[in-house]
């Protein structure tokens, strides 16, 4: 097994682009349904799909966005874990795709650059961090942004049972291979969960964590705890309940029948667009985005970052971690194993008000050593992309301070 780090650029072939355009030309968009307002009960509208597909076919340039993505230096490397699933099957080696963007200045704490691994979630991608990179690099951070296994240009083992803890091990090996024996971590969505697993398994190396989705599976509050919730926490509890009532069905689908559902997303770019855009719109703080919402190009580019590599393996992550049928492949379901352990290294939280899944601080602290909790006034689930300045400021202040304390205690 080679430890080689191979330069990589995203380069979609002309043949693939031609195939995409043919599918867009032949898209079957229904015209026999009521075109109601876009809301949690009905999802994307016919008008939105028609307008977006028209722009996609006649005004959008993938090559322009591909070039922008390739401004981030990207690489691939092969990592082999020794771990096995419950059946004793050894996992295939994985091809890890990642961006590696180095600091442009020294950190305020002095010394060499601070290694930071940024871990995204679903339906996000490694490029979520791109808008925040100038600030992070100027503050002295070397940023490593991998694609989760099965996402983008990272592969997924064929063997069942590859869960959040295996992702965490892969990312630890990646950081060590890059020469970072000690590092800090940032995560949102799945990234927040994988990050906690990373600190649990490698606390001597992953020295501090910042998350923008502070979630634990426990939801039981005592009467006293409920009475002491802040206004922001009460709003977060209400939004979490909205998410569970109207938005969480996708989790059940992706955790139980990812392959069946994946055929539709894999075959149809319009299906992928509708699934993606629905989540982007309802999980974001649209009114505080420039122009009051995402651009049509943003919807399309995020869609293609799943569609071109193939979206089916990405949604397998829900089955591997939450699917009941996975009990035959793992000794203990990953979500339960995560809840039974605690992160003892320092954890910082930024709560953006339109985040969909937020546990009250009193619950999150039971499983994490929370030393900082900041309430933001705007922003949603895709914080690094939606509010890159606020996101970067919180990450820089918290992780620079923690890195300085860690270095002082060596």
TrEMBL record:
Q: Name the keywords, alphabetized.
A: Aromatic hydrocarbons catabolism, Hydrolase
Q: Which Pfam families does the record associate with it?
A: EHN
Look up the domain of life of the source.
Eukaryota
Q: Where is the Epoxide hydrolase N-terminal domain?
A: 5-129
Q: What is the name attached to this protein's record? A: Epoxide hydrolase N-terminal domain-containing protein
Q: Which family does it belong to?
A: Belongs to the peptidase S33 family.
Q: Which InterPro entries match?
A: AB_hydrolase_fold, Epox_hydrolase-like, Epoxide_hydro_N, Epoxide_hydrolase
Q: Which organism is it from?
A: Pyricularia grisea
């Amino acid at each position: 097994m080679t430890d080689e780090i191979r330069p990589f650029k995203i380069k979609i072939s002309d043949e693939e682009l031609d195939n995409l355009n043919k599918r867009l030309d032949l898209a079957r968009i229904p015209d026999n349904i009521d075109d109601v307002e876009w809301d949690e009960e009905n999802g994307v509208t016919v008008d939105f799909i028609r307008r977006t597909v028209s722009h996609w076919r006649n005004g959008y340039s993938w090559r322009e966005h591909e070039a922008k993505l390739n401004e981030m230096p990207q690489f691939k490397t092969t990592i082999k874990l020794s771990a096995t699933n419950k059946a004793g099957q050894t996992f295939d080696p994985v091809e890890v795709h990642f961006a590696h963007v180095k600091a442009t200045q020294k950190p305020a704490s002095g010394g060499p650059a601070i290694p930071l691994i940024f871990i995204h979630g679903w339906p996000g991608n490694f490029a979520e961090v791109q808008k925040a990179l100038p600030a992070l690099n100027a503050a002295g951070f070397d940023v490593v942004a991998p694609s989760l296994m099965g996402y983008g240009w990272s592969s997924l083992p064929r063997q069942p049972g590859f869960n959040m803890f295996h992702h965490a091990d892969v990312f630890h090996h990646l950081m060590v291979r890059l020469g970072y024996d000690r590092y800090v971590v940032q995560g949102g969505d799945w990234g927040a969960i994988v990050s906690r697993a990373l600190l649990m398994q490698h606390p001597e190396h992953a020295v501090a964590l910042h998350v923008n989705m502070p979630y634990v599976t426990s939801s039981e509050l005592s009467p006293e705890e409920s009475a002491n919730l802040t206004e922001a926490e009460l709003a977060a509890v209400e939004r979490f309940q909205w998410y569970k009532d109207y938005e969480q069905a996708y989790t059940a689908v992706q955790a139980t029948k990812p392959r069946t559902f994946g055929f539709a997303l894999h075959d149809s770019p319009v299906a992928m667009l509708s699934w993606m855009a629905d989540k982007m719109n309802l999980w974001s703080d649209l009114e505080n985005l420039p122009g009051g919402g995402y651009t049509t190009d943003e919807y399309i580019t995020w869609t293609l970052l799943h569609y071109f590599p193939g979206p089916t393996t990405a949604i397998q992550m829900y089955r591997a971690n939450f699917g009941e049928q996975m009990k035959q492949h793992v000794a203990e379901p990953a979500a339960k194993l995560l809840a039974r352990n605690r992160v003892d290294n320092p954890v910082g939280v930024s709560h953006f008000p339109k985040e969909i899944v937020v546990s009250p601080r009193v619950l999150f602290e039971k499983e994490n050593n929370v030393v900082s909790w900041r309430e933001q006034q705007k922003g949603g689930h895709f914080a690094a992309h939606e509010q890159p300045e606020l996101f970067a400021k919180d990450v820089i202040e918290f992780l620079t301070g923690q890195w300085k304390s860690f270095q002082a205690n060596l």
